[in-house]
Amino acid sequence: xxxxxxxxxxxxxxxxxxxxxxxxxxxxxxxxxxxxxxxxxxxxxxxxxxxxxxxxxxxxxxxxxxxxxxxxxxxxxxxxxxxxxxxxxxxxxxxxxxxxxxxxxxxxxxxxxxxxxxxxxxxxxxxxxxxxxxxxxxxxxxxxxxxxxxxxxxxxxxxxxxxxxxxxxxxxxxxxxxxxxxxxxxxxxxxxxxxxxxxxxxxxxxxxxxxxxxxxxxxxxxxxxxxxxxxxxxxxxxxxxxxxxxxxxxxxxxxxxxx
Amino acid sequence: xxxxxxxxxxxxxxxxxxxxxxxxxxxxxxxxxxxxxxxxxxxxxxxxxxxxxxxxxxxxxxxxxxxxxxxxxxxxxxxxxxxxxxxxxxxxxxxxxxxxxxxxxxxxxxxxxxxxxxxxxxxxxxxxxxxxxxxxxxxxxxxxxxxxxxxxxxxxxxxxxxxxxxxxxxxxxxxxxxxxxxxxxxxxxxxxxxxxxxxxxxxxxxxxxxxxxxxxxxxxxxxxxxxxxxxxxxxxxxxxxxxxxxxxxxxxxxxxxxxxxxxxxxxxxxxxxxxxxxxxxxxxxxxxxxxxxxxxxxxxxxxxxxxxxxxxxxxxxxxxxxxxxxxxxxxxxxxxxxxxxxxxxxxxxxxxxxxxxxxxxxxxxxxxxxxxxxxxxxxxxxxxxxxxxxxxxxxxxxxxxxxxxxxxxxxxx
Lengths: 259, 413
What we know:
- By secondary structure, chain A is α/β, with parallel strands linked by helices.
- In chain A, α1 (14-23) packs parallel to α11 and α10 (213-224) packs antiparallel against α11.
- Chain A is built from eleven helices and nine strands.
- The chains are: A alpha/beta (259), B alpha/beta (413).
- Chain A binds chain B through residues 35-40, 42, 46-47, 50, 53, 58-60, 82-89, 109-112, 114-115, 132-139, 142, 146, 157, 160-162, and chain B through 8-9, 18-24, 26-27, 166-167, 172, 176, 179-180, 183-186, 280-286, 288, 291, 293, 295-299.
C-alpha cells in the first residue's frame, strides 16, 4: 500500500500518480493530508507537506480533487490525517465529507484514545475503515483497546521513530504473532519500509506493507527531472507490488481487504 | 485544582489537555508519568530538588517593591517576583533542574529540549552541565538569529545546538523537531519540555516544578504585605511562568489572576501570538488547548517581538482557567512591551526580558485602575540582557518611524 502526500508536487498530479500506482499493482493507497506540524513524519514527508501547504493546498481542495478522480480508480483510498484537522473541521462533518468524496477509510496517527470513540462512531456510520497506530512497544491491554477501535484493518508501526528510509528490513515476526492473538483484523505495517526486499520480508508476517518516504523521494526525483509522474509512480510501485504479491502467494496469506 | 474530569482519564483540565501523540510516544509518556508520581512522593527527591534550587539556582528569589513604576501607574502598589534573579536569568531553571534530576532518577543519559528565546535551552544546558548529562537543544534558525548570544551560551555549557530550518523556523518548529528526535530515541533520552504544553504529563510536571514561584510569592505576600495581593500578573507564551505563579493562588478567590499574551502588531492573523485571546480550541504538540489555526486546522504563523512568546499554542490548563473564568487574559502589543522595557529599566533599575515587559505593561494599566491601598504582583519572569541588542534595533526603528510620522502625519499613532 503506497502513501502519497496530497498536493505534492501539485494537486492536479494526484490523479495521474494514483492511476500510475494502480497500474503498478498497488492494492490500496493512503493519501496524506498535509498538516503544518506533522510530528510523526520524517524529513521527506514533512517537507512534502510543507511544500504542499505553501502552494495553497487545502483539505477542501483535496476532497474535490479526490471526488473527481475517484471514478477512474478501483483500489480503496484511505486518508492519513492529523486529529488537529479532523477536530477543527468537526469529526462528524469531516468523516461525512471524506465518505462523500469517495474515501474508503481514514487513519488518524495522533488521536487520543480516551476521546476517540465519537470518531470511530462516525467512521462506522459511513462504513469507513478506521485505524489509529499500533506501536512496536504498545502494551497488550492497550493493543486490545486499539484493535477494538479499529475497523477493517490495523496500522502497525514497523519501527520506533519516524517515517523515513532505512537500510534493514524490520523483523515483525514475534510482534505480529502477539497481535494476532488479540485480533483477526488484517495488519498493515508501515514506517521505514523502502525497498522490494523490505516489502518481501514484511509481508511474510504482515498482510500489507506501507511505503511512504521512498515513494515521496521517487516522486521528488521524477518531478525534478520533468518525468511523467504517473509513469514514475507505476515504475516505483510495481517491483514492490510483485514482492508483496509473490510472497503472499507463496505463503498463502491474504491481502488487506478494505471496501 | 487540576480540574481533571471523570471519564477522560488523567491529564485533562476540563476538556483540555490529553495525549494527542503518535503511539510511539505513549509508552514513554506512561513511564514518565509513573516516574514523576514516584519521585514527587519521595521525600529524598523533594529534598534534592529543594537543595539544588537553594544552593545552585539561588532561591528563594527576591520580592521587590516597585514604587516609582507604581507612581507612574497612579494606583495600586506594584511588586515584582524576581525570577530574573534566578540563576541563568529566568524562571526556566526551576523546571530544568527538576526534570534533569527526574531524568537522572530514570537512568536517562541524554537530554533534549526545544527553545524559543533560548532561555529554556540555556537553563537545560546549565542543569545538564551541573549533573553531567549530554544535552542537545533544538532552536529555530530565526530565533537563533535573534538570540545568538544564547546559542553561544548553550555551546559554552557543553550543549549541542541543532538549528531548525523548517516551517516558520521558530519555537513551534523546534518543538516538532525535538518531538521527532524523542520518538526515535526515547529509550535513553529524556525530553525536557520547557513550558506547560505538550502531552500529559508534561503540563502537570512543568506546572508543579514552576509552582515554587507562586508558593514563595504567596508566603512573601503574607509576610511583607500582611495578606494576599489583590492581583497577580504574568506574561503567557506557553504559559509556564504564569502557571507557576498562578497555581498556588488559584483557590484564593479574592486574588485576581491576569495572564498577558503577545499582541504583536495587531489583531489580524499572523500579527500576534495570542491564542487565548484570538484562537480556537485545537490540538497542537500533543494536547488540546487554544491554538491559532486556520479554518482547516493548520497552525497559523505568529508574530511577537519576543521570541519566548512567539508560539501559536498555550498550555491546556490556561485554556481551562480561561473557560472557567478563573484567570483573565489580555494582550500587550510589541509597542507596549517596548515601552515597558524602557520604563522598568529607568524607573526601577531592572532591565526585564521582552517577554516580562508584556506583563509589566499590563500591570501598569491594571494597577492604574485600582485604589492606592491595593497590591499588584507581577512575575518578573526574566532579565533583559539577552534582549538588549534586539531592543536597540526595535527602539531605533520605532524612533525613526516616530520622527517620520511626526513630520508627515502627526495624527498617526
